[in-house]
Structure prediction request, 552 residues.
Amino acid sequence: MSDLLCGGTLAERTAAHGATSPEEMRRIIRTGAWTEPTAGLCRGHVQANMAILPADWAFEFLLFCQRNPKPCPVLDVTEPGSPEPRLVAPGADLRTDLPRYRVYRDGVLTEEPTDIRHLWRDDLVAFLLGCSFSFEGALLEAGVPVRHIEEGTNVPMYITNRPCVPAGRFAGPTVVSMRPVPNPLVPKAVLCTGRFPSVHGAPIHIGDPEALGIADVNRPDFGDPVPIRPGETPVFWACGVTPQAVVMASKPPFVITHSPGHMFLCNPRDADYAVF
Amino acid sequence: MSDLLCGGTLAERTAAHGATSPEEMRRIIRTGAWTEPTAGLCRGHVQANMAILPADWAFEFLLFCQRNPKPCPVLDVTEPGSPEPRLVAPGADLRTDLPRYRVYRDGVLTEEPTDIRHLWRDDLVAFLLGCSFSFEGALLEAGVPVRHIEEGTNVPMYITNRPCVPAGRFAGPTVVSMRPVPNPLVPKAVLCTGRFPSVHGAPIHIGDPEALGIADVNRPDFGDPVPIRPGETPVFWACGVTPQAVVMASKPPFVITHSPGHMFLCNPRDADYAVF
Prediction:
């Protein structure tokens, strides 16, 4: 496998690992041979957002996630001091098995390393949260086109006027992602993503962006704009950027996250999280 | 309303409050005028199991619930020191608004009061967990008979051979409840309870009790046995007794729970927790 890592474009190298198992891909990442985004790797398997916090912030953050399950769907939480996500990847090590990390001290980004063993502490708790890659697979399988994938850009994301339910020191607005859906396919888009409440679930809003406090749908707060064509409706899903924005706003003294797009590859398949 | 509280059998008095709002019923309970079980009150509204723990046990318990969502579906968690369940009943007071409580010290039941204001502390965190009353309503509406309701007895519950995923100091087996379902209605029973993942969701097992480690289905560990008639299959759902058994087994120094059957009446309707 490792010769596939050494040449070609990112798209070619990603395609070469579309069917690699999460266990094997994590092993490759651990060696330092893959430090790039994970979209398209280990297709069919769940990828996760990660946030690592000191234990004295962990209860409030877990409570925040529990109160806001659509933007913050919890997949796994480690025991304090343990870097092993025992539910979704027994034997994995969250200090080495993501391609790239971001380290924040008092809310300021200080480093973007590819390994965090030297930063690990006995009081750290890691949270793995669901990511929209899973439900985008469900959309594509159901025949619903996903515009930003067609365009090869990042999904457009918007800060809304809908506050999350606060918990302790954590509070902030819901962030949504948007996908334009051909009108006749909107019901299918609702049903096929609603099957996956662990990875953001059904949309939280369909249609008029202004109702969410979005002034200009062509100017997203994060990611890239995508065209909305005649006969399409903008459909909005709760987004995993929400917990990250909320954590940053509350400025814990020490936080480590995945670097955007550089997710953790979990053992379960997307289908394992379908509720019906 | 209050004259309805003073006479008649429990069944008659319960029927008189079948359509009372949760807000009004909590007010009646707060005055001490209702100290009896809550089954059948405020029909259509969610009722909750309660466990109150010291804050230094709260993260591990929330994590336990997150890892075992079928037996431990979290509806609300209070801020440390606050007795107000702000998600499911803003303005309510968990120290007075349940008809009867149980107090455990070092794992030993010491009191069964109807008010816990004198026991409240600034470090206590209250957890409200979903209860099977909600999905039994869904079964009845779907035309699936519920045997223990027909018989006027408590649902049979069994300790299984399926361990929960442990978290910190909390570990133990899954407890299940059983309802015999006529064979042609088993799919309907699965679908209509599967819509409610916040209140135990779909069954975890259908058929052979021995596969769950249940030696004799006619001798439940808790509750009362019910007849399984020819042409019926025993169907097993994860049960809210699970978290209580696990909490008791781990012997925190101080725990308060609802007294069995004396639940907290929440504002939301069962339908609010349907995912499709």
